[in-house]
Amino acid sequence: MTPAALPNDWPFKAQSSLVSTGRQRFWVTDTGPKDAPALLLLHGTGASGHSFARTLPGLSQTYRVITPDLPGHGCSPGFAGRLNLDAMAQDLWTLLDTLQIRPQAIIGHSAGAAIGLRMAELRPVPQIIGLNAALGEFDGAAAFLFPILARGLATLPFAASAITAFFGRPGTVERILTGTGSPLDPTGRAQYLRLVRDPDHVTGALGMMADWRLQGLLNRLPQTQTQVTLIASEGDRAVPAQVSIDAANRIPGARLHLLPKRGHLAHEEAEDGLSALILNALMPDLRTTAPPRT
Fold first, then answer.
1. What is the DSSP letter of 136?
2. What residues contact residue 111 under an 8 Å CB cut-off, 6+ apart?
3. Per-residue pLDDT tens for 121-136?
4. Which tens digits make up the pLDDT trace of 191-240?
5. Which segments of 170-234 does DSSP mark as H helices, in order?
6. Starting from the edge strand earliest in sequence, which strands make up the sheet with 25-31, in order?
7. Does residue 197 form part of some domain?
8. Is residue 186 part of a domain?
9. Which of 69, 102, 118, 254 is least buried, going by the fewest C-beta atoms within 10 A?
10. Is residue 20 part of a domain?
11. CATH label of the domain that carries residue 236
């Protein structure tokens, strides 16, 4: 999708621009005071930076908030061979170098949390906050079949166009979102419908899923050096809360907060985008004493 294709009411369009890093181009939303400590927000597979539309206002009062579309998603072009975990983590650091930013924290939703943890392995990051973090591999036959299926679809001619035609209907998108435990309001559904109808976005999401390998990162969780907070929804049907519970038990000093009723897109459901909860986790006096797990 090109920036020109975005409607004028797309979240924070006026505060966004294409940033070239030499190898990649990222569509980046840059909000908050330019001299404030910086946060990096990373969305999950199949979404875009719009996912944090409700989160940004609360965070941007105190922090400079950098919210890119991941490679191949939204308005950020994708490149074959650069949609895996390691490449995306490296390319996001290149983006931050281009912007001359060192983030105080990385807040990642779903797969974005895994990317944030990988970034923290490459360079120090004071804090990672995961929202319904996708920190588990597929089990059983799905572990074998799903990446192969995604890889095959990503390489088939016209596959993305066929997927947009099949899934790019309001009722279908509504059922998919409801299936995550987060039905969303009409505005949220319309935004995902626009993404699903874009073949370039679908191709990028398929490419990311095809190259998604987490086992190395999962094996290294007990060696995590940064402070980690995991926020998980008990109503998440896409990444069950147990995934975050298990990960928190393996990460030294990790904090865990469970949200009742919310679904996978909890930050898109909550009126404040979970910004109050995130700001609470970012408070310096909470970094040395972990609250009880709820």
1. -
2. 44, 45, 134, 208, 212
3. 999 999 999 999 999 8
4. 999 998 898 898 888 888 888 889 999 999 999 999 999 999 999 998 99
5. 170-179, 186-196, 199-210, 215-219
6. 16-20, 25-31, 64-68, 38-42, 103-109, 127-131, 227-233, 255-259
7. no
8. no
9. 102
10. yes
11. 3.40.50.1820
User: Which amino acid, one-letter code, is at 49?
Assistant: G
Residue with tokens 């308005």, as numbered in its chain: 75
Residue 13 belongs to domain spanning? 3-139+213-286
Residue 236 phi/psi, 5-degree rounding, is -75, 120
Residue 154 above 70 pLDDT?
Answer: no
What is the end-to-end Cα distance of the chain in Å, rounded?
A: 41
Residue 293 lies in a domain: no
Q: Which residues neighbour 176 within 8 Å (Cβ) at sequence distance 6 or greater? A: 167, 192
The stretch 289-293 carries a mean pLDDT of 38
Residues 43 and 52 sit within 8 Å (Cβ to Cβ):
yes
Instruction: Look at the chain and report how many structural domains it folds into.
Output: 1
pTM to 2 decimal places: 0.90
Question: In angstroms, what CA-CA distances link 166 with 82, 89, 151, 187, 220?
Answer: 27, 32, 19, 21, 39
CA–CA distance, 110 with 73 (Å, rounded to integer): 15
pLDDT (tens digit, 9 = 90+) per residue, 32-49? Answer: 999 999 999 999 998 999
Least confident interval from 147-156, 173-182, 205-214: 147-156
